[in-house]
Automatic annotation (TrEMBL):
InterPro entries: Dimeric_a/b-barrel (IPR011008), DUF1330 (IPR010753). Pfam families: DUF1330 (PF07045). PANTHER family: BLR0684 PROTEIN, PTHR41521. Residues 2-91 form the DUF1330 domain. This is DUF1330 domain-containing protein.
Length: 96
């Protein structure tokens, strides 16, 4: 059954965050990931969303593949770059 990683982020230091983006470029695809949505929140219909929040939805063949991506050595190393990119708030969840 397909699984999705839904990531939300607010980026306050775009040049530093781009180091993380470069480091993960093509990595999700190696685990069978296919990005369905990538962009800013354009309208809030209910609840509250931080200003500037972006959403990324990536589909994987199954939850095991999604988790393998998140736990891979390459992703873990790249995540360190994101951590040092200023005030970045990231939430990632797997839905299957």
């Amino acid at each position: 059954m397909p699984a999705f990683i839904i990531a939300t982020t607010v980026i306050t230091d775009p040049p530093r965050f781009m180091e993380y983006v470069k480091a993960i470029s093509g990595l999700a695809e190696r685990f069978g990931g296919e990005t369905y949505v990538r962009g800013p929140v354009t309208e809030v219909l209910e609840g509250e969303v931080p200003e500037g929040e972006r959403v990324i939805v990536t589909r994987y063949p199954d939850a095991a593949a999604a988790k393998a991506y998140l736990h891979s050595d390459e992703y873990q190393a790249a995540k360190l770059l994101r951590k040092n990119a200023g005030d970045v708030v990231v939430r990632m969840i797997v839905v299957d």
